[in-house]
Specification:
alpha/beta, nine-stranded mixed sheet, 27 strands, 4 domains, Luciferase, domain 3, disordered N terminus
């Protein structure tokens, strides 16, 4: 015999429970403890609305009442069987609650379904504005463009599990390309357009990309390395989606069966460097991306009335998750701008009635420099709710001055590519704490010592994460994945602490990573280039404070005996081999570089010396 269970909190569809799977009569008091266990697990697994949690409580208590009055007692029960049934019941409920707690009632299983559901609900609402050329796409138009692009990719033999590299500036085409990959079950592989040719070559070869969607401005860079890309089958020019997909626009053949793509399938492979300097491919799933969009949207209370500005590069997860996917998830709109422009910024905010935007500290400093007297007269910005900032902590003075000058609250958050993007945000209300990166928005988060023991509040340690927005692992790098996920938690390499109220603070980085204007730079990669110069005996690269970019790259060099070099000689050497943003902006010739007992370079001492010089 079976009993139907209301599925309002179980992601649609009818669920059934066997009568002999309920706890035996007399277990109502034990069930109180079980209720706490379920709610605690649910809260830790996913950020829930109170309404959902109340629904879960009501169902558990209803089951308890039925049991207490004997309504659900098995026809042929014994004490032994009742205990066994109790355990089965608890396992069933716990598994069901946890697996569904993070989903809204009709949350999609994959990103293609998410887009289609939003397009079905609001076909004529504008989803995407292209600031560069004035184009706009309704949800239905955007979905049709995505389908046409998916058919274009399919014609180049792209199937589920294949990687498509994306090399283009911020544009409507970039966002359409992401979704076209997802509709097919392929992985979108955004390529940082600031990279040098050999760096692009590594990313594309390591990811085994089969097709590249590229705009004309980057075509020549690909031609120079085309012969070194053995996995690449096709290079497709994608300047204008309508022109590129003209022959596929009205095709009726399906791109892929969305039922074949689930939440655990890979959606994005995005490269981030490790402390060794070698880029690693982060594998983010459909579930990761959907989860983070939901977490951000619910935490910041985004609605269909919100219109977000995407001016940060779409080859970073910040732009993808915070201002693109979140806008889609909440049924709102996004405006994509080719790049951040301080001189045009407030006009864009006014013209498009932007309600929030993503930023890094450097952008805020540039706005303050360009508009010391605040927003220019005649522009409408009263709809702007707040600015979002991440990547690196905002100096307290910059935050204070920005808010005073532009009458716009600044909401800081913390995250990394491995957490899809955001793991914390400050609350967008009076609970906000300047200087803190806020509270976890859906994933679990704690601070541990070197032995992975959780430390007390206020004590420094490494930030570790666990949750539905955390990456599946690193592509073809089992060793790095195992090291990062030791003990079942993802180790960020960031040092921080939690206060008594649960707010987190990032103090330092365990690695020596430099964050320059929102770009992650890993010193060892630069050191290795410097060591290639025949006149360099030793090199150490560090990050030093910079008022505009937050940090700048400084290199300390010991020359070989009898060698004479200028700063410009070495800077030119680096420019030929590294992306411009990675190149040292100052070079210091020294006679010695501090070393620890094991011979490890003490880079923080170098940074201290620079600060005191």
């Amino acid at each position: 015999m079976i009993l139907p269970v209301s599925s309002g909190f179980i992601n649609g569809g009818l669920r059934v429970l066997r009568l002999d799977a309920f706890p035996a009569k007399g277990e109502a008091t034990a069930n109180d403890h079980f209720e706490d266990q379920v709610i605690s697990t649910t809260r830790h697994s996913h950020r829930q609305t109170e309404a959902k949690l109340r629904s879960i409580r009501i169902c558990i208590r209803a089951f308890s009442v039925f049991v207490s009055v004997g309504m659900l007692k098995p026809t042929h029960s014994t004490t032994h069987l009742e205990c066994s049934a109790t355990m089965r019941f608890r396992s069933f409920i716990l598994a069901t609650m946890v697996s569904n707690a993070g989903k809204s009632e009709n949350e999609a299983e994959n990103l293609g379904e998410l887009l289609e559901s939003r397009a079905s609900a609001s076909p004529d609402k504008t989803l995407l504005f292209s600031e560069a050329d004035g184009r706009r796409f309704t949800y239905a138009e955007f979905n049709r463009s995505v389908d046409a692009t998916a058919r274009l990719l399919a014609s180049h033999t792209i199937r589920k599990g294949d990687v498509v590299s994306l090399l283009m500036p911020n544009s409507a085409e970039y966002i359409i390309a992401y979704f076209a990959c997802w509709k097919l079950g392929a992985l979108a592989g955004p390529v940082n357009s600031l990279l040098k040719e050999h760096e692009i070559e590594f990313v594309m070869n390591n990811s085994e990309a089969k097709v590249l969607l590229v705009t004309s401005e980057f075509q020549e860079r690909i031609r120079t390395i085309r012969g070194e890309l053995p996995h690449l089958l096709s290079v497709v020019t994608f300047d204008n989606e309508a022109e590129a997909t003209r022959e596929f626009a009205n095709a009726s053949s399906p791109n892929s069966s969305s039922s074949d793509i689930d939440r655990d399938d890979d959606a994005i492979i995005i490269y981030t460097s490790g402390t060794t300097g070698k880029p690693k491919g982060c594998l983010l799933t459909h579930g990761n991306v959907i989860a983070n969009a939901r977490q951000i949207s619910e935490w910041l209370q985004f609605t269909s009335k919100d219109r977000l500005l995407t001016s940060m590069p779409l080859f970073h997860m910040n732009a993808v998750s915070v201002t693109t996917m979140s806008a889609l998830y909440c049924g709102g709109s996004t405006v994509v701008s080719p790049k951040f422009s301080a001189s045009k910024f407030w006009n864009i905010i006014s013209d498009y009635q932007i309600t929030s935007f993503g930023s890094v500290a450097t952008m805020l400093s540039m706005l303050l420099s360009n508009y010391p007297n605040g927003v220019p007269e005649g522009l409408k910005t009263d709809q702007l709710r707040f600015a979002m900032c991440g990547s690196a902590p905002v100096p307290a003075e910059v935050m204070k001055k920005f808010e005073e000058t532009f009458d716009c609250p600044l909401i800081e958050g913390y995250g990394l590519s491995e957490s899809t993007c955001r793991s914390t945000f400050n609350p967008p209300d009076e609970r906000r704490r300047p200087g803190s990166c806020g509270l976890p928005i859906g994933n679990e988060m704690k601070v541990v010592d070197d032995d992975d023991n959780e430390v007390a509040d206020g004590k420094l340690g490494e930030i570790v994460l666990r949750g539905e927005n955390i990456l599946k692992g690193y592509f073809k790098n089992a060793e790095a994945s195992e090291r990062a996920f030791r003990g079942g938690w993802f180790h960020t390499g960031d040092i921080g602490y939690r206060d008594k109220d649960g707010y987190f603070y990032i103090v330092d980085r365990k690695s020596d990573m430099i964050i320059r204007g929102g770009e992650n730079i890993y010193p060892r990669e630069i050191d290795e280039v410097l060591y290639q110069h025949p006149g360099v005996a030793a090199a150490a690269t560090v990050g030093v404070p910079d008022p505009l970019y937050g940090e700048e790259v400084a290199a300390f060099i010991i020359l070989k005996n009898g060698v004479r070099l200028s700063q410009e000689n070495l800077m030119d050497f680096c420019r030929e081999r590294l992306a411009d943003y990675k190149c040292p902006k100052s070079i210091h010739f020294v006679s010695d570089i501090p070393k620890g007992p094991t011979g490890k370079l003490l880079k923080r001492e170098l940074a201290s010396q620079f600060a005191n010089s």
